[in-house]
Design goal:
Layout: E1 3-6, H1 11-22, E2 27-30, H2 42-47, E3 56-58, E4 61-63, H3 67-73, H4 86-116, H5 126-147, H6 160-163, H7 166-173, H8 180-183, H9 186-195, H10 199-207
Parallel strand pairs: 1-2
Antiparallel strand pairs: 1-3, 3-4
Helix pairs in contact: 1-7, 1-10, 4-5, 4-7, 5-9
């Protein structure tokens, strides 16, 4: 059964697609236009009752907390994304939590303000932008320290912890025009060059066009 991934144009589903590519799992995509509000349609709400992305449909199985599931289920194929020892797994989980609670909230708010506000006809909240820039900068300072000691966040191996950062950071250095936040930090910059040049991410960019250029 081919996995269906909804909303491939946007960053959160792209994380899932990137995981599927790394794990060599066959998938297909189903467009969802957030600007038109298609995520609030009755058909979509049957799949994801909160009206959010991402969501996958794997036969009769529907899931919206996705990456760990596929990284574990297909652990024996593709890229090992969870670490080979319990200690490595612990570090992967730790940095996934950091991404979810420290990195993503700030970069998500920047995405909403700088990329989505104009599409919804709303003014940019400059106060929120400033606060999010500051929060993200502080988090990236922690990353700079960490990445001065290891090639990747969980150690010297690429993992789900690194993968989870790629789509939103692509927005940051691209359409948001905030390349300096990455480039001003030597080790973060080297890490970004590494993970953003993976063949899997290039494939995702070819398959899934973004509304932001």
């Amino acid at each position: 059964m081919v996995v269906k991934v909804y909303g491939p144009a946007y960053a959160s589903p792209k994380r899932v697609i990137l995981c599927l590519v790394e794990k060599e799992i066959e998938f297909e995509t189903v467009p969802v236009d957030l600007i038109k509000g298609e995520q609030r349609s009755p058909e979509y709400l049957k799949l994801q009752p909160f009206g959010e992305l991402p969501v996958i449909q794997d036969g009769d199985f529907i899931l919206y907390a996705i990456m760990r599931y596929y990284a574990e289920k297909y652990r024996s194929q593709g890229t090992e994304l969870l670490g080979k020892t319990i200690e490595e797994r612990g570090l992967v989980e730790q940095w996934l939590e950091v991404e979810a609670h420290n990195y993503n909230p700030a970069i998500y708010e920047l995405t909403i303000q700088l990329l989505f506000s104009s599409k919804f006809g709303r003014p940019v909240d400059e106060k929120l932008v400033k606060e999010s820039d500051e929060k993200l900068g502080k988090t990236l300072d922690v990353y700079e320290e960490r990445l001065s000691k290891s090639k990747y966040l969980a150690g010297d191996f690429f993992s789900l912890a690194d993968l989870s950062h790629i789509p939103f950071t692509h927005y940051l250095v691209g359409p948001m025009g905030r390349q300096h936040m990455i480039r001003d930090r030597k080790h973060v910059s080297a890490w970004w060059d590494d993970i953003s040049n993976r063949p899997s991410w290039k494939k995702v960019l070819e398959l899934c066009k973004t509304p932001f250029g």
